Amino acid sequence: MKLKVSIIGASGYTGGELLRLLLFHPNVEVNQVTSESYTGKFVYKIHPNLRKSTMLKFSSANELQPCDLLFLCLPHNRSQNKIDEFKKLAPKIIDLSADFRLKDVNEYEKWYGHKHARPDLLNDFVYGIPELHRTEMKKTNYISSAGCNATATILGLYPLYKNNLVELDRTVIEVKVGSSEGGNKGNEGSHHPERANVVRSYQPTQHRHTAEMLQELSFGQKLAIHFSATAIDMVRGLLATCHVFLKNDLQEKDIWKIYRDAYGNEPFIRIVKESEGIYRYPEPKLLIGTNYCDIGFKKDEFSNRLVVISAIDNLMKGAAGQALQAFNLMNGFDERTGLEFPGLHPI
Ligand SMILES: NC(=O)c1ccc[n+]([C@@H]2O[C@H](COP(=O)([O-])OP(=O)(O)OC[C@H]3O[C@@H](n4cnc5c(N)ncnc54)[C@H](OP(=O)(O)O)[C@@H]3O)[C@@H](O)[C@H]2O)c1
């Protein structure tokens, strides 16, 4: 069975990455891909990596025909205003923006600085990390894909918070991110002479993805997460270094067991912790183009601090790959379909 699928906002980075995956998915026929800036142009002119993979042309969103499922790859605050139009076009929707990620409408005002246009729909969308919400994904028609920084951080810390093992107000997270996280629209900061070689602290506090972390890691308790983001000289990939403080005197072998119990059967999570070699901990460059999240840790011998290190490709496990994994679950396919390939080495 092939599902007819369309992508809105397909000229962008996440839309292009999703198209790269969907074109080779055995159960998908890509119906239409939209762009307002490039309507009528061949897709490969904008996504040159797709030359000879597709002869699709971009349509305008006004030309969309009904299909089985719509992926929304629009900037924040666009989907929520057009959601009724989109719902008329397809019975199932996966939104990659932040528009339906948060369950508490007040959090949108706090973190995004605006009132949400459709608070009545927030609970219809399942939050998009498959490892946490697999069961709900199998039953829903609406999924809101998670933020990339949030995905790496939540997956890294979930086993510890779920088992109530860490102090609730002392978690400090530093994420280093590549430039593709900012999308394909250039600005002063992304101009090459300004962006190359940077280690730029761009959001030391109040990063919007903190709201998702609090939502998914609180388990009904009040907690604080202290999150900072730094732009570094990389195109794809992100590395989250998470400092948590353990409530109990756990040893590394106990922590191994906690992570193995949580993720031992997960197809896209790998525990990376080697005692020798140069790749002892997660390294984003080995994940480029893949749907893996690599997680490692090290306990501080002199304190109760545990450092959890988590890496993903922001456009894959942090966006298109995660969305396709969710798509597979939503539609009853093996969740690995179209995603089972390793990264490149060397790269
Ligand atoms: N980049 C990441 O690492 C990442 C990871 C996870 C989630 N996300 C989320 O995924 C969504 C898409 O991100 P992206 O990185 O693919 O962004 P992007 O590269 O900027 O692409 C967004 C696309 O949306 C279209 N668009 C339609 N209306 C627009 C408007 N009013 N203003 C600007 N663009 C408009 C644009 O295409 P046309 O002008 O051709 O129509 C544009 O190519 C965002 O909500 C983002 O937060 C991004």
Task: Note the main attributes of this structure.
single chain, 347 residues, Rossmann fold, 2 domains, seven-stranded mixed beta sheet
Explain this structure.
Helices cover 28% and strands 21% of the residues. The protein is α/β, with parallel strands linked by helices. It has a seven-stranded parallel sheet, with helices on both faces. Strands 9-10-8-11-14-13-12 form a seven-stranded mixed sheet. The longest helix has 15 residues, at 148-162. The radius of gyration is 20 Å and the shape is globular. The model has no long low-confidence stretch (mean pLDDT 97). The structure holds NADP nicotinamide-adenine-dinucleotide phosphate (NAP). The site of NADP nicotinamide-adenine-dinucleotide phosphate has 29 residues, from helix 1 and helix 10. NADP nicotinamide-adenine-dinucleotide phosphate binds at residues 9, 11-15, 35-38, 73-76, 78, 96-98, 147-148, 180-181, 183-185, 314-315, 318-319.
SSE layout:
Layout lengths: L2 E6 L4 H10 L5 E7 L8 H4 L11 E2 L9 E4 L6 H11 L2 E4 L9 H8 L13 E2 L2 H8 L4 E3 L3 H15 L8 E7 L14 H4 L3 E5 L5 H9 L7 E8 L5 E8 L6 H12 L5 E3 L21 E7 L5 E8 L3 H15 L17
Helix pairs in contact: 1-10, 6-8
